[in-house]
Structure formats: C-alpha cells, structure tokens
Amino acid sequence: MAQEMTTQNTQDVAKNNGDANRRAMAFTPIVDIFERDETTVIMADMPGVAPEDVDVTLERRILTLHGKVKPYAPEGYRALTSEYRVGDYIRSFTLSDEIDQAKINATFKNGVLRLELPRSPEAQPKKISVKAG
Amino acid sequence: MLQTTYTPFNFADPFMDMRRMQSAMNRIFEGARGPGQSATYPPINLWAGEEGIMMTAELAGLTEQDIELTVKDNMLAIRGTYPDPETGDDTVWHRHERADGTFLRSIELPFRVNPDLINARFENGVLTVEMKRPEDDKPKHVAIKSS
User: Fold this and answer.
1) What is the pTM of this model?
2) SS3 A97
C-alpha cells in the first residue's frame, strides 16, 4: 500500500543518502508495532521489495529498516494512470528497551517485513518478594 | 514555417477524458467511507499498450487466496480481505497503521478485454494483472489507396 502522503513523525520522502546512482525515491513504510510476551513485534509494509533486498540494522538503540525496490516498467506499455509512486522504503525507530540482539528474528513474506525483538533477560521486570519481618 | 508535430497513432488523446473522468469520480467518492481508508483503495497504476492493458496494485500482507479478481467487458473489480491482526489479551499496541478489513474497487478500463487472456500475478505484495484486447476490438490500420 502506498500511503506516501501520510504524515508521520519522520519525513515522508527521505533523501537518498550518499548512493547517488539510485534514482528511486524513498518512502516511509507504514508499520504495526505491538508487544506480547516480552517480545516487541514490528510489521512493516514494503510492497515490491524482494526478500533479499531488505536490510535491517540495529545500531545502539536505533533500528533502521531499509527496503530497495527494483523499478518496474512493463515493456511495450506506457503509463496511463499513476495513483501511487514506487520507491525505496526507509524508517528508523529508537528502541526503549534493551533488546536481546542475538535473538532478533526477521521474516519477509508477501511484501511485509516482520521483526521480532525479544527483550533481554536483564531488562525484564523482576519481581521482588517482600518478606514479613 | 510553422511546424506541427504529427503522431499518426497517438494513444494519449482518447484516454485523456477517461483519466479525467476517473479522477473526477475519485474526488466525488473520496471520504465516502470511514476515515483512514478512502473509497478508492487500493491505489492502482495502469499501463496501456497496443495489445492490451496492465494494472498493478500494492497489496502488502495479502496472499493470492485473499484477492479476488473479476472482469466483465471493460470493468475490472478487485476484492480483498486483509488477515486479522494478531490480537490477544496480552497484546499491547503501540502503532497500528497497516490496513485491515475488506476492500472492493471497480476500475473502468479504456477498452474491452478478453477474459480468457488475463494473466494475474502476485509477487512480494504487488498484484500485476495483464489484460489483452479482443482481436476484433483492436484498432485497425486502414490502407489508403491512391486513385
């Protein structure tokens, strides 16, 4: 889904960082974020991106999702109507909890990136039992 | 001398009204449904060629089974249902931006298409539908004889 005009905290159309050869525009993918069983799940819509072109990086607490799109233009056809534009997807998040980096699980299916970020054991709330004196 | 550009087989003009019509209709029905989802969902891109027409739509999160395509004459309908988001008593939502629910969109094509020659693919969340014009409906070149 190309909701490129949705206003979010970040810039809608991100700039191309460095890589001047890539002409494609970059959009902010729409996401679902929910938490369950000490695991934070991020699902990001990246239609048109092949699984091998998805790049997820976690640096300190900044999680960056990047999906590269191969522009598609059918041969022998010319554009008639264009209701959505095609481009790369970039979005960054600052994670509030300590994430167990070794256990991050990322899957990509039908244009949706699913990230499972389990909280590290140290960051999980500990229960302190109070003894009667 | 004034030069005029002349393209003998110009596709652009006959479709211009079509596009204007489509966008006018989109404006009328915009916001006819609930907030967040416009009446013209999903957004589509159309390509036209001499042989037929190509349509693409971004439908991330769906599978082939969730999409239903119907074609009659020059009307194409896309119907789809997003899988329910994983919910539970212990689920805490932080952001919910992705689409859910059911959508239906009808698209008027600039010409009739042959229902037997439709090629639909769904890859990485992008639906591509290739439609061909019926043989008897294609524009014909008319040879002009000199007397």
Assistant:
1) 0.71
2) coil
